[in-house]
Structure formats: C-alpha cells, structure tokens
Amino acid sequence: MPKGPGNKSCHNVRTDCTAPGLRQAVLDNLYYVSGNTPVTASAQDWYDAVAYCVRDRMLKAWNEGIERITKALDLRAVAYLSAEFLIGPQLGSNVLALGIAEPLREALATLGQDLDAIVDGEHEPGLGNGGLGRLAACYMDSMATLGVPAIGYGIHYEFGMFTQTIRDGWQVEMADKWLRQGFPWEIVQHEFAVEVGLGGSTETFLDAGGRLRVRWNPEKRILAVPHDIPVIGYGGTFCNVLRLWSAEAVDAFDFGSFSSGDYGKAVEEKILSETISKVLYPNDEPYQGKVLRLGQQYFFVSASLRDMLRVQQMLGKPLDTFHTTFAIQLNDTHPAVAVAELMRLLVDGHGMEWERAWAVTTKCFSYTNHTLLPEALEKWPVELFGGLLPRHLEIIYEINRRFLEEVRAAYPGDEGLAARLSLIDEASPRSVRMAHLAVVGSHAVNGVAALHTELLKTHVMQDFAALTPQKFCNVTNGVTPRRFLALCNPRLAACITSRIGPAWINRFEEEIGKLEAFADDPGFQAQWRGIKRENKAALSALAEKHLGVALNPDAVFDVQVKRVHEYKRQHLNILRVIALYSAIKRDPGAEFSPLAVLFGGKAAPGYFMAKRVIKLIHNVAQVINGDPDVGGRLTVAYIPNFNVRVGQVVYPAADISQQISLAGKEASGTGNMKFGINGAVTMGTLDGANVEMRQCVGEENFFLFGLTAPEVVEVKRNGYDPRAYAATDPVLGQALDMIASGAFSAGDREIFRPIVDNLLYQDEYMVLADFASYMHCQALVMEACRDTARFTRMSILNVARLGKFSSDRSIRDYCRDIWNITPELG
Ligand SMILES: *Cc1c(COP(=O)(O)O)cnc(C)c1O
C-alpha cells in the first residue's frame, strides 16, 4: 500500500467545514490532485489544494444552481451578455461567501501555512479592461447573493488584459498568459460545445411547405467550448454560473493535407480558429474597427444564444415563449449582434414568422449604454460586416426597413429624422450602428447614472427618446460591498460589524446607515483613523517593496486609480501637483501638511497621449520625491499594473478619491463608489454617479469643483480658448511653463510638448478651464484634513450614506424595472 496523506478520520473531505475536516481536505488535494506532500509542495501547489478544497464546498450550491435553470419551467433567468468580466481573484471572495475563513485559517496554520498569504498570491484572470468588465462581475456577485437565477456569458480569452510594467517612466505592456498555472475555478463542459459559422454567403430556397427561406452557408466553422466558473452568493447557498467560451478548431487536422505530408497546413486551420478567443482588445473607450473583434463578438453571442435555446428545448417549452425563460441583458453594444442572431436562429433556423420572432426578440433584450463619448459608439463598415456575417447584414437591413417604415409613418416627410435613426450610417464608409441595433431590438435601454441617462435622452439618443420614451430608464451603477469592503478592508469591516452587526454585508443599503450614529463618537473616530492608518501602512509597504518609494502613512493619501484617458484628466491632477510643488519651492519654510499623491492605471497600448501622461507623472514624481526642499512632505507615486487585486489594497488606503473627469464625459464611474465605501472623501466634478454620491453624503462631505455639464456646453458654444486661462492664471501659466521648459525632463523641451501644446491649443476636455476651481478646492481639502475630528466625521458619513451604491440595489432595480424577476433571497 502506498503511504497516502493519512486519511484515518471520518471527515467528509468534500464537504466538511470544520478545521480538522478542512485540514484533511487540503492534504488530500495536495496528495491526490497535485501529487505532493507538505514537504514537496510549492506555493502554487498549496494554492491549488486550498482552491480545490473550497471549490468542493461550492459544488452542492453549484449543481443546484444548474438544476434550477434547467428544470424549473416557470422560472425566468437573466442571461448577462458581456465581452468582459473582470472577476478579480477568486479564492478570498469564495471563502468569504462560504463563511469558512476562520476554520480554514486554523486548518492551514496547523500545516504551517498562512491563509492570507495564499489568498494574496493568486494571479487574477484579467478578462476585462476596467469599469465595464468589473461592473459585470459585481452584478454576478449581487445576482447570486440576492437569489436571481443568472448565467453570465462571455469570452474565455487566452490572453487577458496586458500586464503593465514601467521602464524609465514609460508603460511597457507584457502579455498576460493567465492560464499558465491553470485555473482551478473553471470546469470545461465539452458536451455543451457548439459550432459557430463565419463568412461565406447566403442562398434562398423553398422549404417543404413551399415557403421561401434563406440559408447561410458559412465559409468557416469554429467550435465554441464553454468554461464554467461558479459565482456563489454571500451565505453560500445560491450559485450561478459564468460561462465563458473559448474557440477551438472543429477538426484539429485537415487530414487531406496531413496525409499528403503538409503538416504545417494541416494545423493551420486549428491555429486560425483559435485566434478568435486569443486576446482581449485592450482599448477602454474608443472601439477599434478590427474584423477579429467583430468575430469575437459574434462568436460568443452565437454560442450563448444557442446554449439558451438548448435549455428552452430541454425544458420542452415552445420557442415563442423564449422570452419567458430568459431576460437577456446587453452590457454595452459589444454583444448587440445578438439581436440579429436571435432573429436568424428563430426565422432561418426554426422557420418562425418574422413578426413573431421579432416580438420574442424585443421582449428578450434590454441594453445598457455605457458611454457618452461619440468615438466610443461602435460602427462597423457594412463591407467588413457583410464579409464576416452576410446573413446578419441582410437581417439588419430588413429590421431597418421595417423600423424606418414605422418612423416615416409617424413622422411623414422627415427624412432627416429617418437618416439619424437608421441602423445604417450612410456616410462613407457606410456602416452599421450597433447602438441603434441594440435600441431597436430591446424593450428597455438604460444609462448607468442619473446624469448619464438624462444626457442620453437629451443628447446622444434624443431622437430615439422622442420616438420611444417608455424604453428609456436609469439604473445607477453599484459595487459589491462583499469584495470592496468586507473582503478588501477586513479591519474596517470588523469595526463596522462591532457597532451595527454583520447584516450590512448582504443588506448594505438597509443597514449601513446605522453607522451614522457613531460619526462623532471620539472612541469610534479614533478606531476609524487607526484602521485607515494601518491600511495606509500596508500600501506603503507594498510601494516600498515594488517601487522603492517611501510613503508616509501619516500623510494624506490622495489617490487617482483608473484607466488613463484624457477625459479622466490625470493631467489635471499632475498640473495640481506641479502647482503645489512650485508653492513649496517658493517658500520652503511655509507649513505644508504631508500629502502623498498616488496614481495608477493602464493606458491603451496605442494611445499616444495617455502614455505620455504616464511618463510625465513619473518624471514629476522623480523630481519632487528627490527634492530636499520638499523633504518628503509631498510625494508622488505611480502604482503599476492597476487591476482588481491592486485595487483591493489601494481603495482601503485612500483619504481622498480623485474623480475629476470633465462633466458630461464619465457615464457613471464605479471606482468613486469603491473609494467612498472605504471611507475616502471625494474630490470631484459633477459627473456620472458623483452627482448622486454627493446628494447622498451631503454637499459638506464632498469636495466639489469644476464646470457643470451645461456650463461645458455653454463655454464651448462661445468658443473655448484655453490660452486665455493660461495667460490670466499665473499659477497655471507657471505650471505649464515648467513642463514646457524641461524642468521635469532634464531640460528636454520636446518630450512633453505634445501634452502642453494639446492643452494650450485644443484641450478638448477643458483641463485649463477647470484648473483654478480645482486649486481652490485643493485648499479647502487641506484645511479640512488638518481638522482631524471633522475629517474623520466626513469619512464615516461617506461610508454610512453610500448604501445606495451597493450593486445589490442596482440588481433590484434591474429586476423590478427591466427584467420582471423577483429575487428569491433577501
Ligand atoms: C473599479 C475598477 C475600475 C473602474 O474605475 P473608475 O474609476 O470608475 O474608472 C477600473 N479598473 C479596475 C481594476 C477596477 O476595479
């Protein structure tokens, strides 16, 4: 007999949640799954053993979840279609949901292992760019916690979001091969693989009943293989699934080429097929009109709809009740081709009448718009679209023909209106407007914050809003208080629980307000500050280790972490830093309370200006951090590779949250909410969800500056001249001059010229217009920070009054206003 891991006990190693049971389970996995003993195990082996142990304990809820969707005839489930799911590290959140942290910690301690170190060692799946993908993940968490049956459908990218490294101040991208070490949370479901066609042509034929039908003969077929990741709700009883599709060749080999000796050609097909799910496009806001991207979108959408139709048929329900089984949410326009694909499946595939299929389709779909930037609205040239999806282009033309007929009937003679509403942009090159397809094909369209929805209705989509006002509604974004408070800030979570009990974790909106009673309690305030200081010390330790920058935990931590984009205005922030630096240089003896200004975020690899802003921040940091006149009172640091994992350390350590986009540009933001529920006070513009956050926390607990959205329009209408601001504001003029003169580039006047010139001669995002207001606000912030009791009160009230920004509230809104689903829990 081989000497096994010594399972002499009666513990069920798959389900037992006591410390001895968990200990035995970890040892069993170590031995039987990864072929190790505690002596030979690497850190990765320990991680895998613990992950499988936790996964086992999710499987009961997981299997019940799959049964729920595939057995219940009268149940409506959400299908959340998203090209991105930025789910973050899995071990910690699953342990939290199951409530087994303490026994697991104890079990691992007896094996000489530290649960926190194992949790912190996880490499996250970076299957999203930023806010949009993270929102999808928060919504999956909330749906599982509230008991809303749901499947998340997306893409199993082989390479996720690139890893950002910094060399000499410049961003350098490295491929993220996240599956290198395996991913213990997924189960591959080969039996549910489906074939997806691409390219080719269409033909008409008469069916057996003598009806004219259309057939698509794709040139190419790709196999979509589902990878299922469980999403377990808080409490551990309700589990949904995230189903991500990866592309494989239908036939691995072309046997003809193989037998004729051309091995290379034989595997060519395989390589080509697999490129579909190879890589996440790293562009956050502007879309990229690449044919492979459209291929990715269609690939996952087609596989997902066919998967849903399989469930419908397995339930034995007729196809014209498909909308009673699934509410399909389109997360932005990335999956909007689903409207045409469902029509094709119903009409071509199942011979349904067009009108009936259209009724089913529009009752299924609803669409979330995420952007106000015109360059981010997806448009595909019809030639490219028709080359890849010839049948879908025909279907879109037919949808458009019928739609414009209705428009012309309602507004006779208004050809301008018809042209503006058309699914086809007739300007050269003619292209398909994906947002229009999504709106026409959906029964509900939502913006993601009150201001954003208003701007959608009055500007971006005003013609649609006039035509079908009942379709438009608002669902303000939210974030999960599990990951972004309970998990990432355990000290603050315990402190909150000690005062108001633990119910806030899954009843955040209802419970967190109870904290307000302690806002002025000196003992509570001291505890609150102590925790913030510990969180800052933890971030400092990380910065010291990875950057060699010493951050003083007694300084005010002022943080801007998010994708780098001109509309988010990291350059406004660094201009402020330069102005503060100049003030210190002018009078080094004057009092200046310690301030640490932290940045983090990735730039799209092809985004010239964003990459140069990253370089500028690094150069400014080098000068300021090394200047003896400053003496460590002002420090600047750039935290590389901002992702969910890094965010979980950064959000809890912030005193001030920078949310400084030009009003009218940020749809909602969710980073603002994560900072807020961790006790950071916002310094921000009236943009996105900042507006509602300020209403909730009270204007005295929010540092407001900048133009409002209507003022932005007004100033631009009167002819915005940024140079006038630089000429009349000496502080601004001097800050710009310092950059231009090479003060941060060893005399090099060229390197940052593109930034300075852009600001002086274009400044699309009105950095110079908002600068003075920002500096005035900065003075108020510094004054408030010096009054410890006042600032602590502001911090506590931010947490206590942000209950609305739980993604549980957002999901309840979707359930009530859009999906017509009643959550089973809570
Ligand atoms: C929340 C989050 C974002 C979104 O941040 P915003 O400030 O809303 O732009 C981006 N990236 C990551 C990793 C996040 O967790």
UniProtKB/TrEMBL annotation:
Its cofactor is pyridoxal 5'-phosphate. It catalyses: [(1->4)-alpha-D-glucosyl](n) + phosphate = [(1->4)-alpha-D-glucosyl](n-1) + alpha-D-glucose 1-phosphate. One of its GO terms (molecular function) is glycogen phosphorylase activity. SUPFAM superfamilies: UDP-Glycosyltransferase/glycogen phosphorylase. One of its GO terms (cellular component) is cytoplasm. Allosteric enzyme that catalyzes the rate-limiting step in glycogen catabolism, the phosphorolytic cleavage of glycogen to produce glucose-1-phosphate, and plays a central role in maintaining cellular and organismal glucose homeostasis. This is Alpha-1,4 glucan phosphorylase. It comes from Desulfolutivibrio sulfodismutans.
